TrEMBL record:
Protein name stated in the entry: TetR/AcrR family transcriptional regulator
Keyword Transcription attributed: yes
Region (Disordered): 172-196
Keywords of this entry: DNA-binding, Transcription, Transcription regulation
InterPro entries for this protein: Homeodomain-like_sf, HTH-type_TetR-like_transc_reg, HTH_TetR, Tet_transcr_reg_TetR-rel_C_sf
The species this protein was found in: Sinomonas terricola
Biased composition annotated in UniProt, kind: Basic and acidic residues: 173-196
Cited PANTHER family: HTH-TYPE TRANSCRIPTIONAL REGULATOR BETI (PTHR30055:SF234), HTH-TYPE TRANSCRIPTIONAL REGULATOR RUTR (PTHR30055)
Pfam family, one: TetR_N
């Protein structure tokens, strides 16, 4: 096969796969996972059902493919943002903000629901990516302690504190969003919620700030 044709075919396959993943994400957002079929995904993507099976053998494989794609893209964007930060407290703010915003728009079912529909091996694949996210958080917290921006503490306990606060924030944000929708036409203020979560977590791990809200060493 000529190289140009091979590259064109590879690009076409990548484009079709992207359409499948995007269609699946839209359906997760609008309809949820229960009752979703490969036929629904094919119709949403505007392609034949057989074409979907050329990429994913079943709905479980599609779900894990979508989850890994979403998490991988999130990690790439997060690491790019962290590389531009000036200090570890700012990195923590970037991490928390990114997580809150991602959890508010992500179409994936929560962890327990994922475990219920995925095989142990597929759920383990997803766990590897989640573990990488947690490793990023631990690295930030360790840097904060090493540079004197937060008091020395048990790293694992501190990471669990942050993760627990993020989970609570996501649940609270979802409830607030539903309440705002029911109180139309008053608009929601997601930025205010995110800012409050960032500051709550920063203060919760022991970060301190000067009068101009710049982080200071303990």
């Amino acid at each position: 096969m000529p190289r140009i044709q091979a590259e064109s075919n590879a690009a076409q396959r990548a484009l079709t796969q992207r359409r499948i993943l995007d269609a699946f994400g839209e359906l997760l957002f609008t309809r949820g996972l229960p009752g979703l079929t490969m036929t629904d995904v094919a119709r949403q993507a505007g392609i034949g059902r057989t074409a979907v099976y050329n990429y994913y053998a079943d709905l479980e494989e599609l779900l894990i493919g979508y989850a890994l794609d979403e998490t991988g893209r999130f990690l790439t964007e997060l690491k790019d943002q962290l590389a531009a930060a000036e200090n570890p407290v700012e990195k923590l703010a970037i991490y928390v903000r990114a997580q809150v915003e991602d959890l508010s728009r992500r179409h994936l079912p929560p962890g327990p629901a994922m475990r219920a529909v995925l095989s142990p091996s597929s759920f383990a694949k997803l766990g590897d990516h989640v573990g990488e996210l947690n490793t990023v958080l631990r690295s930030i917290l360790r840097e904060c302690m090493d540079e004197g921006y937060i008091p020395q503490a048990d790293l694992e306990e501190l990471a669990q504190l942050v993760l627990g606060s993020l989970a609570a924030s996501a649940n609270r944000g979802q409830r607030d969003g539903e309440a705002d929708a029911a109180r139309e036409p008053e608009p929601a203020h997601p930025d205010r919620h995110t800012d409050a979560t960032v500051r709550f977590i920063q203060l919760g791990v022991g970060a301190r700030f000067d009068g101009e809200r710049r982080p200071v060493r303990a």
